[in-house]
Fold each of these.
Amino acid sequence: MSGIRPTGFLHLGNYFGALRNYVRMQEEYECYFMVADLHSLTTHPDTKELKDNVHRVLSENIACGLDPDKVALFCQSHVYETSELYLYLNMLAYKGELEKTVTFKDKVRQHPDNVNAGLLTYPVLQAADILLHRALLVPVGKDQEQHLEMARNFANRFNHRYGDIFPEPQAFNYGSELIKVPSLDGGGKMSKSENQNATLYLSDDDDLIHKKIMKTKTDAGPTAPNSPKPDYIENIFLLMKLVSSEEVIKNFEQAYNDCTIRYGDMKKQLAEDMVSFIAPIRAKAEAIRADKTYLKEVMEKGAEKARQSARATMGKVREAMGLNYY
Ligand code: AMP
């Protein structure tokens, strides 16, 4: 189970942190993937662009390889049971622990005039999304590690108080560790709403991809063989590892180590490989986004599958909590 907020355009971080794993998981597991529209309301109360953004995220999910016939691909707000479980879990979440959450503190800094209770209880809503399907694996990027730990705490508290209903969900990635795709300026992570010039979006056109990559910081190059790489150079190599061939990476590593590297050439190569990666996804997503009838069908089918699983869990939850009066 996992989700992506419809707060803007999907980017390389969403792809490598989350979507790439979704696409592999759909072949092996029973999967629930959603557009997290309720979560987006905690920071984006203006809903003028919400519908477009929901359509965009859905289309980009499918363009990246998710198959709505294999997984439940749905919209969070279409599954009303989420709000019910969120309410119950809120009674098991403590103000102190919520205030200490790193993402909460970040968001308070970014939106000081809208520190609402929904923002504070964001990890509780996320736990509800996951526990609603009694999910075991949650494919997410590194930024979500703490939220997953909180979801396990809420699940354990529930089980302890009311009986064993929820398994412990784990953050999941097919690689050995969770991923963080850095922003192009090296000053943080790629993001839907911040750092837009330093983020590569799956909707960026070829020209923009070239421009963003060519602008990344480099220097005159290493002066001694086998020098350690500065962070901003390490970042370029890291991005290359996501989209370029092993051969290309090996050549640039070698050139770095023997001090013959030309960063202009390296960035040009990265830009070309990035275009080859992004362009087909962009074209596919645009075509899907234009087909509103198809998107409606996907959402309806996804919501039905998700509701079925949610209803089953909530039956168990109400029973365990003693909310069964006849
Ligand atoms: P969000 O964009 O915050 O709705 O996150 C959707 C998914 O993408 C989550 O699983 C995040 O962990 C993941 N994600 C977002 N940004 C990055 C990034 N820069 N690197 C890796 N994963 C990311």
Note: The radius of gyration is 21 Å.
Amino acid sequence: MSISNINWPEIENKVYMQTFKRLPVTLVRGSGMKVWDSNGKEYLDFFAGLAVDCLGHCHPAVVDALTKQAKTLIQTSNLFYTIPQTQLAELLVNNSCLDRVFICNSGAEANEGAIKLARRYGKLKLNGANEIITTHESFHGRTLATTAATGQAKFQEPYVPLPNGFINVDYNNISTIKAATTKSTCAVMLEPIQGEGGVNVPDDDYLKQVRDWCNEKGILLILDEVQTGIGRTGTLFAYEQYGIEPDIMTLAKGLGGGVPIAAFLSKENVTVFKPGEHGTTFGGNPLVCAVAVAVLNYIIENDISSNAKVVGQYFIDKLKKLAAKYDYITEVRGKGLLLAIGFNADISEDIVLKCLEAGLLVNNVKPNSLRFIPPLTVTNKDVDKAVEILDKVLKERK
Ligand code: PLP
């Protein structure tokens, strides 16, 4: 039986936990900027697996590293040294302001590690301080601790009581962080640009103000670059654009170009873990690390971050033209290739479905906002095509 004759969503509905609101297509294949569904229909992908597929689908650098490593060594546990893990850690250290790396499997897990490191530091160096200040509209993951860190009631309410020690305050307002800081505070944890919260770019001086405050109080600054890192905002890491350095940084999404890998990195003086105080079985296995090494080398050698910046600006200009044409677009926001448009009503789900019908994948990050997170290898021509489809969809709504 051909795959197109099978109703995959009907089967999924019976057997999979219904925690996702999925789009009504079953994707079966991808190449570069495009994906195809089980009926053979083609889509231009401005969604990129939720900002993961940074080199597009099935990029030769990813496929070659994956197949070569799969034939060599897949998994060893962390009780042995492996070459791909060591190479990846060295690459990350040489290309960031951080000194040490721990590799794990998902963004939430990287943030859990960052939280544990900050608490351990608080215990040893800050008289037992263990509270972490995070912000409203943030997103840090789905584990219990990262749900407590995520300042959005809709994620927290189903699971109370959550682990304590997280204070959620308003984003882009240094006075809320100052007011929440006490002797019990060990860290402030932020996204340089809030992704899942709707692509919220803070004022230019916000992160510098937070950095200065953390220095003044002797507390740590954790930057969650799970979404903004690996070139997404036009530099390898978003912190580079704000003239600051974090004490701890977390990465995931783009790091493996599609394979599940994440990491947290820290400054030497902050790295207080001793053997046995943190661990993972799968994290940092040779298979995913070899791919991440290939992805990172490709991004650095081909200056893909600059492509994100240049094509991102081209895209912003085009989106601004659409905003001038349709008065129900209220805002264009974002940096590099982490972009969104806001509407004056909750219409983004409908627009996403119309775009899907027209062969374009985009994301309704909020009921009134569309997010664009294409592969970082996207070209002006791809942007022209996406904007042409979007324009048609928006025109029909008018
Ligand atoms: N942190 C940020 C900024 C994110 O955007 C996400 C996911 O969207 C996460 C953490 C959680 O990552 P994961 O879904 O890999 O656990």
Note: Residues 106-108, 111, 139-141, 191, 195-196, 224, 226-227, 252 surround pyridoxal-5'-phosphate (CB under 6 Å).
